[in-house]
Amino acid sequence: MEPRPRSFYVLSAFFGLFVLFLYGPTLTIGILSFQGEGGGLTFPMRGVSMYWFYDLFEQQAVGDIWGSFRRSIVLGLMVMVTTVVVSVMGGLAFRKKFAGSGILFYLIITALVIPSILVSLGVGLLFSQSGLNVHWSTSGFGAQLTWTLPFGLLIMFAVFNRFDKSYEEAARDLGATPWQTIRYVVLPIIAPSLIGVALFGFTLSYDEFARTLLTSGSYNTLPLEIYGMTTNVTSPVLYALGTLTTLFSLLIIGAFLALALLSNRRKARAGSDAGKAV
Amino acid sequence: MVSPLAAVLMFFLVMPIILIVIVSFWRATEFSIIPAFEFDNYEFLFGSNVTYKVFYNTFKYALITWAFTLVIGFTVAYYLAFHIRSLTWQIALFLLCTIPFWTSNIIRMISWIPFLGRNGIANTTLMSWGVIDEPVEWLLFSDFAVILAFVHLYTLFMVVPIFNTMMRIDKSLIEAARDAGANGAQILWNVIIPLTKPGIMIGTIFVVTLVMGDFITVRFMSGSQSANVGRLISNDIALLQYPSASATAIVLLATVLITIGILLRFVDIRKEL
């Protein structure tokens, strides 16, 4: 191997600073959430305790944290499943040109770039003007899909751009029906990327704020609840909640990444699964 | 196959936008909104100095954030793509950069409080070094904090597409440039940057639209002292002035779409996936 140029070390330092910049603040509130009972929002630490975590579990005067956490998880799962299914179907459909495919593609891009407050405002108005109640599981759900679907679809477009069509041709030549081709050939091949789509679907929904703001109705999701707390809670309990939700997010991300790694390994080890399909 | 997708976009994107257009011509009283067809909302919007100031602010945030995210994002992506030699490490470090994207933005904003506050880490450190004598007030709740938060939140959107295009650059091109006598800076300027342009453009589109459409970062990080268009809209919404909020939203949407339209002239997104 050729020796490292000097720029390597300069850039390594830059990268290290960048990672510190990304994670430093989150780590800081992680540390500060163990602030002692009399401590405030900044250093110095006045002792180390779990006080603020207990506080989070005991008093419910600030709002309905656990209810909103439950709602966020249910909504995240709903959005995740829908995103995966609709993105795969969309990805398959977009492999061929069809009437309106150009318009639909630009709609997907629009959904990606449209200011989130427009979706919130528009969906909110749509429901209120047509006499429907805004609720996190209906209007909130739909508003979030406009954010998760473009990501899911872009991943699927990237996957199918690299997809070797000869596998499908082989399946067809062997007499597989279109459905069998998809079920036993296409889906197993793209399965690892679907884990990525699912990760995007769940986490983007779980953390979404702006699109749910006017569309969730009277029951808050967790990000809305946290935002509400920022205006009236000035104790480290805010950090405790932040630390817990970040840990939960990291847990979810870790699980998805492990799943992706596992499925890649299995694929590499098992090699061909010819003959096991039907 | 494509009908669920079309249905979702129809019902939750197209119809809401159409409704916003319609409502922007309506009239508002203190308690309700009344169907009408009048241009009062737009006249008021374009007649007010606040509008121009707020749009100027929006562009200012977008431009400054874009410059910082581009420089940082490009450097990070360049390091990952050309200086890290094993694919496993590349993927691991790339994931390290993307993980924050999957965590909550609001918490990432909150987490700047202990840094930038009056008695925060930045102030105490600077004072102990003797750089300043008393706490600097403009760290938190200022334009500085807003842009810092934007850069913190959105640099990933630059890193990912730029890294993606860089990984597809044929390494033999760089070798050829070196054989032809180009030095490092020349290779960077004449080979790598031109070939990375599509990634830069996609990152730019993300960052510019996210910043222009934002309302929560500006509100939180400026302590309600600065405003951009998003905040103008959300203030109107809070006052139940939906028609005027809608008119502002339509002008914002048009601005964003025109900006994107210009940027899209430089890149074919479908080819880059």
Question: What can you see in these coordinates?
Answer:
The complex is a heterodimer of chains A (278) and B (273). By secondary structure, chain A is an all-alpha fold. Chain A has helices at 6-32, 51-58, 65-93, 101-113, 116-129, 136-161, 166-173, 178-207, 210-213, 222-232, 237-270. Chain A starts with 5 loop residues before the first helix and ends in an 8-residue tail after the last helix. The mean pLDDT of chain A is 85. At the A-B interface, helix 1, helix 3, helix 4, helix 5 and helix 6 of A face helix 1, helix 3, helix 4, helix 5 and helix 6 of B.
Q: Which labels suit this protein?
A:
heterodimer, A: 278 residues, mainly alpha, 11 helices, 0% strand, B: 273 residues, 74% helix
Produce a short descriptive summary.
The complex is a heterodimer of chains A (278) and B (273). By secondary structure, chain A is mainly α.
What is the β-strand count of chain A?
A: 0
Q: What value does the Rg of chain B take, in angstroms? A: 23 Å
Show unreliable segments of chain A: none
The fraction of residues assigned to DSSP E strands of chain B is: under 5%
